[in-house]
Amino acid sequence: MPTETILSALRDKYGHLHQDADVYLKGLLHAKPITYWDYVEVDALLSLQHPRTDFADEYVFIVYHQITELSLRLLLHELEQVTGTNQPTEQQMITKVKRVNRYTELLINSFDIMREGMSYDDYNEFRHALTPASGFQSAQFRLAEIRCTRLVNLLTRTGKQNLPEDAPVSDQFDYIYWKMAGTDHATGQQSLTMRLFIEKYQPSFIQLATQIRGSTLEEQALRLEKAGQLGTELRELLRRFDQLFNIEWPLVHLRTAEYYLDSKGENKAATGGSEWKKYLHPQYQQRRFFPTLWSEEEKANWAK
Ligand code: HEM
Question: Which atom of ligand 1 is the closest one to the Cα of 272?
Fold first, then answer.
């Protein structure tokens, strides 16, 4: 673009704001060049790791959890654009679901950083200093679920039987599947892990689930299907997402928990206190975002 055109566009831009473009141009004389470290906020990022113990691998544990949270943030960034008030086209959905699948694959393919990348003995020492915190308390994981599917798909079997489909969201939350992990194995009481999590996040979960009712990712796909616009490509991408998020990630995660907590048959208590061996298995959870895209036989063989 010729310089004169640029100057004229700048004068127009600032003119619309009733500002003198020349003052802004003078400011450029003093502006410092942008740098990689400021733009990416590298120093801020690297100041966010605070191990609780002296075990070197606790640093690996913290950073990998942060990588997961950033990846979930990317995933939510895509989901936010295709849920809620927007009415995405089939092509827009294809683009977004491809991205979401890529982020989930990243998490699955990198989970060895946990399984292989930490000392077994050190992990089993430093983890005690983290009680009662648990990855279970990842709010972004729950936000992804809420955006992906009708809440009824996230209820326990009892919840699905007892509540009408249009029950208020706050009633549905009494039966949300992850509350099954909330009874402390040892005491029979609601676990502290769960209580703290609910106290901090449940109101915002209920608010989002209420606001997004009718326009979750699943319902956007159902809308396209009703209009005869849910083609094979999008259908397969959504099934792939279910497979990745609700079978493959839970399985690599469960295998890691088994390695550290049960490889010597000790069935150790997890930091969150759940009955984890049963609870974490995708076959037990039967969590599906797009149940109408699976046959009865496929559902019966979920994660087998
Ligand atoms: C050595 C590595 C890990 C072990 C041994 C482990 C173990 C567990 C266990 C036993 C639970 C059940 C809740 C409890 O009683 O604490 C759990 C839940 C969970 N963890 Fe991990 N975890 C590990 C790494 C991670 C990582 C890196 C993340 C990423 C944020 C993560 C995210 C989650 C989530 C989202 C849940 C809830 C899953 C659900 O409700 O289906 N975990 N973990």
Answer: 16
